[in-house]
């Protein structure tokens, strides 16, 4: 709008007041000379559910408080910060506000004053509401210096940051026109423009045109913003505040004081006037005000510059927003510096010749003006209060930051919202952004959503590696009437399953290595740890497929170290990404990776014994064979009883066994089983583990295992040797016995099932262990996740795992998913709030507080309790669900609980008042219903 030189001046909306009743072109006493001003479209709209405010409370809140809450949330998001992450922080709030017409309208009827109406009004509450609902612990201050209020609020926020009172500051301004009072005042004082438009420094300037709006900026120390890679609009280099002192009248501006505050701001910024490219002036369009302001600016700028300083005022576009005027000018200045283009000053086609702008080193920007593309560009902002309080700020473009996107990579796009309906709206908003942005920006956008859009109740996430696919997936999700979401209140219980022998294949996890920096780092770590014991790079074998002639990944001497390396690297990667398991279960070689990640074995020691095991088995004259069979132990036992060199090596499920032993003997057993209709499958890449053939290995392996110290696990391990959870250290005897004894996977799985897991993750190159789980318990309800699905892995599967876990309540360590360049925050569309119409801006729709009709004897206690809950909050009973939280979801604060206690006592005919000390302990609707039911039964 600013670049086009447009404006937002309209007729007074019909829901404000009867404009004609107070209008006269002559400005007769008690009237205003215009019916035009700059009005917001829907100032009564407020998403009370989002902030956990009950409908009755929302009805009686000053619309200025409603606007500030929503605008503050959006401004914090724009700073690449999750607003919920500020809870408990030293964040300050400074709000400029000069009118409280809501209080004028609603606090004069003394008989109707309620607790809600009291807390819904007052300057202090404009700031305190923000601090309360975001749980901010820094200073919380409302500032009224009339028209300069919000720029003075910025100055005070800067002071709080400088003094160390806060680490981040929210500075705001707000103005809503609810009565004709100030319009009449401006008319009677000769200050009001008949057409309702400010015409700053124009030959046609004839007074003030009013406007309303809300603006919020987020401030922090430059060093902190740079350290957090935040997008910076501008840097405030200096600010100053002063007062006019005595002048021609308490409302008359003082040129000398304005000149002094401008000079003070420049001095604090350490800049010369010639270094300031433009000034966003107070510029009300009054003859006296414009003249004095130009003289004050000229005293600073004239004769100091080769090129005149550009001059303008946003009031020409949106009107004089009074308490929000300073923040409006500041936001325009920040946008101009950020985009290095200065919007034109509306009504500047014919400047006021009496101002002699050129002689004062000034000129009006008639067209959009490109600011220098390189180097530091500066702008300044003035705001002067009706009572004489002046403020001036000097701003500059921020230090250059390398925000170039980086091609390639995988991310997770996250969106969260207060309701499923709101989630759909916000998904659509993000989808529109992705349509506009180039594909190489996708990882930065994903990381930014992880920073900003993750903390609300209803969660949605999708892995993103291809822009066109993501766009298609987004459209499908938005159109889906059953959009799948998760709850931020859930806590997934994850079990890691580490893959065992037979899952190896050439170039396994190569796609992960190429696309996921965290996995690459962890695989390089295990490669370095294994090299002294293995004698060469395991990465050259696993990732690059560079094997010696005649050797493959299925050779036992290579398969076991390779599987361990992949299991360790993938498990460590998931842990780095914030996925912490409740327990770990490893199959065969996978148990070494589980023990290492559980802290039982240091990485170097684990590498040493895995390589030792592989080297020992390589010396066997007969590797033997392992075969998986779909049969019961009773079916298999008659066949192996006749073969002393064959044994059951693994009990994976009721009809899921592994036999192991001498090659010929195993072939005879499997042949007999196949004749009996039993399905069999050879296990590749492993000797006959857990069989008599491993006895020659024991002595040599024992020497290596004895040299390794063992520690207590920090995460429980489900032992496949004992078939139970292990919380003690696993000594060398355990590992020696493990290679000769059968694997009791079924018992170990039962042990971890007793922990109540919600998610199983296969940590390895293929989902072979998950296949065992499916066969053992096909009806289980656990979510199974596969970060590497096998040879078809494309490298984005870990992102899919994180997306699923996030939807189910986990908050990952997102930064480990991205490179440093991909972690550069990118500005996202702000949260799209619900457009509930809280109330007309001029009248409270007061709900009855006298109670519902007397409850009939046939109504249940539950029904009457829900009716009382609905009444005191202003809900319908259909709005109440049993798991809704009284404070966070329904906004029932201490005052509401008092009313609830009184209402329940009457409605349920309970003898004596209810115990108020117990009510705050009741967190949900269900808690209240249960409590009241118990009291009712007892009475």
UniProtKB/TrEMBL annotation:
InterPro entries: Ac_transferase_dom_sf, ACP-like_sf, Acyl_transferase_dom, Acyl_Trfase/lysoPLipase, Ketoacyl_synth_AS, Ketoacyl_synth_C, Ketoacyl_synth_N, Malonyl_transacylase_ACP-bd. Pfam families: Acyl_transf_1, KAsynt_C_assoc, ketoacyl-synt, Ketoacyl-synt_C. GO terms for biological process: fatty acid biosynthetic process. Residues 1-397 form the Ketosynthase family 3 (KS3) domain. Keywords: Phosphopantetheine, Phosphoprotein, Transferase. It comes from the Bacteria. One of its GO terms (molecular function) is 3-oxoacyl-[acyl-carrier-protein] synthase activity. Residues 859-936 form the Carrier domain. The keyword Transferase applies. This is Type I polyketide synthase component. It comes from Amycolatopsis decaplanina DSM 44594.
């Amino acid at each position: 709008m600013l670049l086009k030189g447009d404006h937002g001046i309209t007729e007074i909306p019909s829901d404000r007041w009867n404009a004609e009743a107070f209008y006269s072109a002559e400005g007769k006493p008690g009237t205003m000379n215009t019916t035009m001003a700059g009005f917001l479209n829907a100032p009564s709209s407020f998403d009370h559910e989002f902030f956990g405010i009950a409908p009755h409370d929302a009805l009686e809140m000053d619309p200025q408080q409603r606007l500030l809450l929503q605008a503050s949330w959006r401004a914090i998001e724009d700073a690449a910060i999750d607003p919920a992450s500020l809870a408990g922080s030293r964040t300050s709030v400074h709000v400029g506000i000069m009118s409280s017409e809501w209080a004028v309208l609603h606090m004069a009827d003394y008989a109707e004053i309620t607790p809600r109406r009291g807390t819904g009004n007052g300057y202090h509450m404009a700031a305190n509401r923000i601090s309360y609902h975001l749980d901010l612990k820094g200073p919380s201050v409302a500032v009224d210096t009339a028209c300069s209020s919000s720029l003075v609020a910025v100055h005070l926020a800067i002071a709080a940051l400088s003094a160390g009172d806060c680490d981040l500051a929210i500075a705001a301004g707000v103005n809503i026109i609810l009565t004709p009072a100030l319009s009449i005042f401006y008319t009677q004082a000769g200050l009001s423009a008949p057409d309702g438009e400010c015409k700053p420094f124009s030959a046609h300037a004839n007074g003030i045109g009013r406007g309303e709006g809300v603006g919020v900026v987020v401030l922090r120390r430059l060093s902190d913003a740079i350290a957090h890679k935040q997008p910076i609009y501008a840097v405030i280099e200096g600010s100053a505040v002063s007062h006019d002192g005595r002048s021609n009248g308490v409302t008359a501006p003082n040129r000398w004081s304005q000149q002094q505050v401008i000079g003070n701001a420049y001095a604090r910024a350490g800049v010369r006037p010639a270094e300031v490219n433009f000034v966003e002036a107070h510029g009300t369009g009054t003859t006296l005000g414009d003249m004095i302001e130009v003289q004050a600016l000229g005293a600073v700028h004239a004769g100091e510059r080769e090129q005149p300083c550009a001059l303008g005022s946003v009031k020409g576009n949106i009107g004089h927003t009074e308490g929000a005027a300073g923040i409006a000018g500041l936001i325009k200045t920040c946008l101009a510096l950020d985009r290095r283009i200065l919007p034109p000053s509306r009504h500047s086609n014919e400047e006021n010749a009496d101002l002699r702008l050129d002689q004062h080193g000034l000129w009006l920007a008639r067209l959009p003006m490109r600011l220098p593309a390189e180097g530091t560009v500066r702008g300044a902002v003035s705001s002067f209060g009706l009572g004489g309080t002046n403020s001036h700020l000097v701003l500059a473009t921020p230090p250059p930051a390398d925000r170039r996107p980086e091609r390639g990579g995988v991310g997770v796009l996250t969106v969260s919202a207060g309701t499923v309906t709101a989630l759909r709206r916000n998904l659509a908003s993000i989808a529109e952004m992705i349509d506009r942005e180039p594909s190489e920006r996708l990882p930065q956008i994903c990381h930014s959503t992880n920073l900003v859009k993750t903390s609300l109740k209803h969660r949605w996430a999708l892995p993103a590696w291809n822009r066109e696919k993501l766009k298609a997936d987004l459209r499908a999700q938005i159109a889906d009437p059953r959009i799948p979401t998760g709850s931020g209140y859930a806590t997934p219980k994850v079990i890691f399953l580490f893959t065992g022998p037979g899952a190896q294949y050439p170039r396994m996890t190569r796609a992960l290595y190429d696309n996921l920096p965290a996995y690459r780092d962890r695989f390089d770590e295990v490669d370095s740890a294994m090299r002294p014991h293995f004698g060469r790079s395991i990465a050259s074998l696993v990732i690059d497929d560079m094997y010696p002639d005649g050797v493959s990944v299925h050779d036992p001497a290579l398969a076991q170290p390779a599987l361990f390396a992949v299991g360790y690297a993938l498990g460590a990667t998931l842990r780095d990404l914030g996925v912490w398991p409740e327990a770990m279960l490893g199959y065969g070689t996978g148990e070494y990776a589980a023990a290492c990640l559980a802290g039982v074995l240091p990485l170097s020691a684990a590498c040493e014994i895995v390589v030792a095991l592989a080297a020992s088995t390589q010396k066997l004259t007969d590797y033997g064979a392992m075969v998986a069979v779909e049969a019961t132990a009773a079916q298999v036992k008659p066949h192996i009883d006749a073969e002393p060199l064959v044994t059951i090596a693994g009990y994976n499920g009721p009809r899921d066994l592994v036999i192991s032993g001498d090659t010929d003997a195993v072939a005879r057993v499997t042949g007999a089983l196949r004749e009996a209709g039993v399905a069999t499958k050879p296990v590749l890449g492993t000797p006959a583990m857990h069989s008599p053939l491993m006895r020659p290995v024991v002595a040599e392996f024992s020497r290596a295992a004895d040299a390794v110290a063992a520690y207590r696990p920090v995460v429980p391990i489900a032992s496949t040797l004992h078939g139970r959870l292990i919380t003690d250290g696993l000594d060398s005897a355990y590992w020696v016995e493990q290679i000769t004894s059968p694997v009791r996977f079924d018992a170990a799985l039962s042990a971890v099932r007793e922990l109540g897991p919600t998610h199983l993750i296969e940590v390895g190159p293929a989902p072979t262990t998950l296949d065992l789980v499916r066969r053992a318990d096909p009806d289980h309800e656990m979510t199974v996740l596969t970060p590497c699905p096998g040879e078809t892995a494309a490298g984005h599967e870990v992102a899919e795992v994180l997306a699923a876990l996030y939807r189910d309540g986990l908050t990952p360590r997102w930064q480990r998913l991205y490179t440093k360049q991909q972690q550069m925050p990118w500005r996202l569309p702000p949260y799209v709030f619900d457009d509930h119409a809280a109330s007309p801006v001029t009248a409270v729709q007061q709900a009855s507080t006298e109670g519902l009709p007397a409850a009939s004897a046939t109504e249940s206690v539950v029904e009457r309790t829900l009716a009382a809950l609905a009444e005191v909050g202003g809900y319908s009973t259909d709005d109440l669900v049993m798991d809704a939280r009284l404070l966070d979801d329904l906004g029932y604060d201490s005052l509401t609980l008092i009313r609830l206690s009184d209402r329940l006592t009457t409605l349920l005919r309970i003898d004596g008042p209810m115990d108020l000390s117990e009510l705050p302990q009741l967190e949900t609707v269900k808690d209240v219903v249960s409590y009241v039911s118990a009291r009712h039964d007892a009475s």
